[in-house]
Specification:
Elements: H1 22-37, H2 41-49, H3 58-71, H4 77-83, H5 89-101, H6 108-122, H7 124-132, H8 136-140
Helix pairs in contact: 1-2, 1-3, 2-3, 3-5, 5-6, 5-7
Length: about 140
């Protein structure tokens, strides 16, 4: 049984052109927090990965994404990754690395499992892009 995720509509024709306002991001962060508190971490991850990249909101989104990741049981890591679109793997990998850097991260063993399973799906290129902080679309140009 697949989970249903609430998808927010994006005002412009292309999500890549859309820059969310702080209110938009705050709304998604609150919704993700509510999902996490209801033990729906997978849905929170999927929701947060939909937030377009924005340097002003990236820290807050990655912090909440890390909370969502940490709320998911290790046995559900693969099924969560299976539901994530391939173009969002780098964003998820970035959140894992944010977790590695966070001395307050709850469970580094779990983050290592996320890293391992995500690397199997996304490949080494995802790690390189995250470490170099490059967007895959920038490399194609």
């Amino acid at each position: 049984a697949r989970s249903t995720v609430l998808v927010h509509s994006v005002p412009s024709a292309s999500a890549q052109e859309y820059t969310p306002t702080m209110d938009d991001v705050e709304s998604r962060l609150q919704e993700a927090g509510a999902l996490i508190s209801r033990r729906q971490g997978k849905q929170a991850v999927l929701l947060l990965l939909q937030v377009p990249k924005n340097p002003q909101t990236e820290v807050a989104v990655n912090k909440e994404l890390l909370r969502a990741i940490e709320s998911i049981r290790d046995t559900d890591i693969n099924s969560t990754i299976d539901e994530i679109p391939e173009d969002q793997y780098d964003k998820l990998m970035k959140a894992v690395y944010v977790g590695f850097e966070d001395e307050n991260a709850k469970n580094c063993n779990s983050l290592l499992k996320w890293h391992s399973e995500l690397t199997k799906k996304a490949g080494i290129g995802s790690i390189v892009r995250v470490i170099c902080d490059r967007d895959p679309e920038e490399q194609e140009a």
